[in-house]
Design a protein that fits this description.
The chain is of the alpha/beta class and about 290 residues long. It folds into 3 domains: about 1-40; about 55-120; about 135-275, Nucleotidyltransferase, domain 5. The chain is built from 11 helices and 7 strands. The strands form 2 sheets. It has a 5-stranded mixed beta sheet, sandwiched between helices. A hairpin with a 2-residue loop joins strand 5 (about 205) and strand 6. The radius of gyration is 23 Å and the shape is elongated. The two termini are about 35 Å apart.
Length: about 290
Amino acid sequence: MIKPIMYHKVKKLKEIGHTITTISSKTGLDFKTIKKYLKMSPDEYQLYLSSFKQKVKCFDPYRDEIIKILRCANTSKVQASAIFDHLEEIYGELPASERSFRNYIAFLRNNGEFQSESGRIYEPVEPLPPGQQMQLDFGEYRLKDNSKYYIFAAILSHSRCRYVKIYDRPLTTKILIDGLNDCFAYYGGIPHEIVIDQDHLMVVNENKGDIILTNAFQLYKDEMGFNLYVCRKSDPESKGKVENLVNFVKRSFFSTRSFLSLDEARGRLARWLIRKANGKKCVATGRKPISN
């Protein structure tokens, strides 16, 4: 929804002969939005405005908490879906859909309640068969109390099913191997190929294009029988395939939550995996990663 002042500006620009392309450059609105509002008469716009306000009012009881999350989050880009999931975790089923909630966030933003930056998570679409490939990544997240959690995250390329485990100490090769064992148990099998970054827990160095693994990880790889694809340092596009998974965890899980202990964080993370990460339809596939 656009504000009345923007609606009238779009109408005025059209009346004086500007094309949709010119209107878009002057207002920052996309073509679809401009066409939508050009079709509306002033009376139709007022009815639409009233209808929109009525639809989003069902989230008013959560308004103060939403504003607090947006103003106090550790990141400047908090996704509406992450806030929706946070509220759903606390209050159970919410009065309207996630799409209506995004409209409510837009309503608050248009009313000047907060400023936000737009952003999206990139997930590559690869038509790989089931069980073919798993992508693995690691990261760190510092909480407001200055404590830090270390993230082990994996995703299956076919289904987009995610597995995440967090630790309160830096990862070692032993922790990595234990994490992979837990991950394989969660998925119910071992993928044919694992995609990794050139992490020191697994890779010693690269010698004339040949990847040299640490002794412990080489032995583990040989025992488990999976292939390894290591993203090259000079290939940022392939490297991005695994890096964005941790960004998703940070923005969708960590950005709206605080914890009293590692056990609490792990418990809430496990429920988030079921409810949100693997319980909602994936944009890339159009399916839930794990069906009920």
